[in-house]
Design goal:
homodimer, globular, Nucleotidyltransferase, domain 5, alpha/beta, 303 residues, 5-stranded mixed β-sheet, 12 strands, 9 helices
């Protein structure tokens, strides 16, 4: 016999992560199955992951799934994901996985924040948002205990806030977005090709390279402006910073704290806590699992 | 006999607006009582307004109130409002007005949006936000059918988003905020004293003044960047633009639409509607009234 558990699936751009988790957040098992993005190979990997956990742990109480793109309002599919993972748009995962209970589907960044707000960096916090600093900048927000979804499931695209309204347009048209200022995809342009990626830039900063330091300080200042803007819009208790660039550790978090000292609105002295993400690559799978768990609880909130 | 009604009070900076409204949004009566901000004269005006409506229309089914500042989480008072309306912080309005039912208290911008989303520019819309362009820039947001409040009741301070991260700090510390770029409080500085206020600037634009036009275009471009950022964060169906500056009409809304054509992310062709506020000065009083009405309904949502 195995403990009652839920399966959380996080379908990424190049691998499927799956976790089997109990209702109190104990991880029983996790898997990472890479795929090449062609002929819906990813769908087979998802089925394989579920089958493998099922064989090992028995029938799950429920399954949740997250993937890139905008989730449909009924949470049965990803409604909008142009350009990659061909075949994902409109795919009904409850049917595909032959599940006897509905398989709720979430946007991947939404799922990651649900995970962090469940058993990670903002466990139990009712007001929080997360910025994920990587190739691009992703995000999600929970306000008054509820994950923001919005009309099209687009809410929480925190990388696409403008911090330079006269700046160049990013992938979705936002002028001078925080993604353009700190995302790895623009790094080579920002440093005129001197560094291959943000890790190399950060290493140069840490070794005392002044030019690297100027580039980095500009990025951190842009990030601080976005964070303080989002604090004024969303009023969190905790802000989570995740993604590969957050591994810069104090080289990121120290100047960010210094700049927020200058620009953060702190009514009555209240200061927002800025913390690193805790769940790493498994955040989305945890979030998908807890989304399934909550679907089966008597409704106490809309998360 | 009079119809069952609720009283909505909007305590402003220099006058108290009050409305008596039925549950379906019919206005029975409204009042506007000016005051000078000293010795809590405003509290007497609020009592007068309630008393006057009570004498005319009989006992209300409930009373709601809005005022500047951050509302307490229990909605019994304004918890934070430094610098003016001395005596407002912590004042329990249920007790002060001797009401037999709780008098829910809201931030004024929150109340105005509730009003507009009830019977105004976004009636019946579940995802919307409002920017109020005046001396400063205020705002509020409803996402997934719920008014965003946040940890301190600060959510929706949409004027304090940075659109120029290297810019000067505004009243709450935000660098290069949209309030700094379009709020009337910075107009004289932005036009080197050539125009007394934004109405004069807009009049100059309309009469073909090229210098005025450049200043205005910059403001509208900053506003567009903020609007598109907030669309990406909050994912509305409708964006409401209100406040005195919105009376510029097509001189504001036409270049705003043109710029959004360029910068708005429109997944699957979905375009957000940008509309002028409809309720004018009474929005906050309507919103306070509907907040009282909803408090007495069986809970169907958290608004």
């Amino acid at each position: 016999m195995h403990a009652q558990h839920h399966i959380g699936i996080d379908l990424g751009g190049s691998s499927v992560k799956a976790s089997a988790v109990t209702r109190d957040g104990t991880l029983l098992e996790s898997l990472n199955l890479p795929f090449v993005d062609r002929d819906m190979e990813w769908a087979l990997r998802v089925e394989e992951a579920v089958e493998s956990l099922r064989t090992k742990l028995g029938e799950p109480s429920g399954i949740g799934l997250s993937a890139p793109g905008l989730a449909a309002a009924d949470e049965r599919s990803i409604a909008f994901m142009p350009g990659r993972l061909d075949g994902l748009e409109g795919l009904d995962w409850t049917r595909r996985l032959g599940s006897s209970t509905p398989v709720p589907v979430l946007n991947d960044a939404h799922a990651a924040l649900l995970g962090e707000a469940w058993i990670g960096a903002a466990a139990g916090v009712a007001n929080t948002f997360m910025l994920t600093l990587g190739t691009g900048v992703g995000g999600a927000a929970i306000v008054d205990g509820r994950l923001l979804k919005g009309r099209l499931g687009r809410a929480g695209h925190l990388g696409h806030v403008s911090v330079d309204f006269l700046g160049p347009l990013d992938d979705v048209g936002t002028p001078g977005s925080v993604e353009s200022e700190i995302g790895n995809k623009t790094l080579r342009k920002r440093c005129s090709g001197r560094h291959a990626n943000t890790h190399a830039l950060v290493a140069a900063v840490e070794s005392g390279d002044l030019e690297a330091r100027q580039i980095w300080e500009r990025s951190v200042r842009a990030l601080s402006a976005a964070v303080t803007s989002l604090i004024n819009v969303l009023d969190p208790e905790v802000v989570i910073i995740g993604g590969g660039i957050a591994r810069a550790g104090k080289t990121l978090f120290e100047p960010l704290a210094t700049e927020l000292e200058r620009v953060e609105w702190r009514p009555g002295g209240h200061q927002v806590r800025i913390v690193p993400a805790q769940l790493g690559d498994l955040a989305g799978a945890y979030g998908s699992a807890v989304n399934s768990i909550r679907r089966q609880l008597p409704a106490v909130d809309g998360r």
